């Protein structure tokens, strides 16, 4: 009765993430390298996946708007100098400036947001930024700022082009190219993301207009930078000519071999 009893060791308090270390049998796994997946406290795997999706969308949207800003700046500089950069000089500019800014700045914003308030990525209704504590302004702030800046670039570009063309030749405005310039100018409203300013208006009609107008951005990018681009059309012509030459070579070789066989 007076014997001293050894107290029982407490069972390890185990949560869902550590079941790989303490199986249901109660036995520990042998010593050695073990790989366990530690999830954030209080989050299930679907919630973690939703938060990762929200972070990825945050980065991709910010990258899109940053590239819109760079395109607006490039358009303004091109209009001011009335020059078209060659492909080699544009590639150098993209490597030195556009790629680091276009992908680095959004990554920095997302890194700061995720480091400060990671629990606000994802909501019970959707995988997006949580509006609590103004966290959603981590996207809305840069997006609307870039839209306003691009709108200023767009208006300044129109004014510069109009002034310089009218000073060169007064009849330029009456030429057939005016329609093309007007269409490209209107298309750049969509390409530069200026139509995102409609999102500020809370009327239901504006919500439908905002959705329809911004869904056409990819169409206008294809029209302006592919179908209406002279450089792209020339590349397509060169590509089609090379395909035709490759098709005509086997036919000419077949006819010549047939003629030789008939002559023999």
Structure overview:
This protein has 264 residues and is mainly α. The protein has one domain (45-244). It has seven helices and no strands. The chain has helices spanning 45-81, 87-116, 137-168, 177-191, 204-215, 217-227, 230-263. Helix 1 packs parallel to helix 3 and helix 4 (177-191) crosses helix 6. It is globular and about 75 Å long. The termini are far apart. 13% of the residues are buried. Residues 48-229 form the G-protein coupled receptors family 2 profile domain. Keywords: Calcium, Cell membrane, Disulfide bond, EGF-like domain, Glycoprotein, Membrane, Repeat, Signal, Transmembrane, Transmembrane helix. It is found in: Cell membrane. This is G-protein coupled receptors family 2 profile 2 domain-containing protein. The chain crosses the membrane at residues 59-77, 97-116, 136-161, 181-201, 207-228.
Which helices and strands occur, and which strands form pairs?
Layout: H1 45-81, H2 87-116, H3 137-168, H4 177-191, H5 204-215, H6 217-227, H7 230-263
Helix pairs in contact: 1-2, 1-3, 4-6
What order do the helices and strands follow?
HHHHHHH
The gyration radius over C-alpha positions equals 31 Å
Structural class: mainly alpha
Main beta-sheet annotation: none
Bin the helical content: 55-70%
